[in-house]
Q: What sequence folds into this?
């Protein structure tokens, strides 16, 4: 094995587990997450020389993987749904006991099952920290659509958590 191949293998082993978690949040299933991860690391290795040591290397890899996931979803799914922020239902706060009780795996499963547009915006805003302006630009949607989809994603998650724990909000 050449030094370069060994270096790439070590790099992959270091960052792939965390990046796979990112891929799973955007993908419909593990097979799709595997594809996103593979495609993302191909881009990472092809563009590694362009990393300018501005910020962390892990952050740069993460942005590359997130952008790969976005492009993958855009290519294979319809996520655009023109929603008006004024028609979004208000989201009630979840009780802290429910938030303390739900496991990370349960929450990730609920996020994974969201409609694709909701999932994309929720992941980008809540999990990755993108602003609605950045999301609008990345997904080619309006800021209001981004805000509306986030509101609806939160509402849907709240409803599913309530159902999971038998909480009646009527």
A:
């Amino acid at each position: 094995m050449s030094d370069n191949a060994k270096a790439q293998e070590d790099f992959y082993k270091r960052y792939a587990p965390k990046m796979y978690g990112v891929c799973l949040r955007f993908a419909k299933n593990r097979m799709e997450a595997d594809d996103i991860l593979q495609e993302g690391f191909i881009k990472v290795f092809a563009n590694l020389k362009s990393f300018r040591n501005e910020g962390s290397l892990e952050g740069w890899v993460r942005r590359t993987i997130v952008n790969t996931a976005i492009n993958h979803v855009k290519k294979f799914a319809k996520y655009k749904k023109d929603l008006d922020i004024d028609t979004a239902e208000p989201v009630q706060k979840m009780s802290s006991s429910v938030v303390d009780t739900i496991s990370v795996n349960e929450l990730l499963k609920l996020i994974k099952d969201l409609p694709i547009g909701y999932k994309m915006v929720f992941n980008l805003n809540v999990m990755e920290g993108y602003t609605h302006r950045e999301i609008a630009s990345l997904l080619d949607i309006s800021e209001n659509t981004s805000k509306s989809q986030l509101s609806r994603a939160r509402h849907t998650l709240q409803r599913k958590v309530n159902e999971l724990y038998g909480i009646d909000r009527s």
Notes: Confidence is low (pLDDT under 50) at residues 79-98. The longest helix spans residues 3-26. The chain has two domains: 3-76, 85-164. Residues 85-164 form a domain with the Arc Repressor Mutant, subunit A fold (CATH 1.10.10.10).
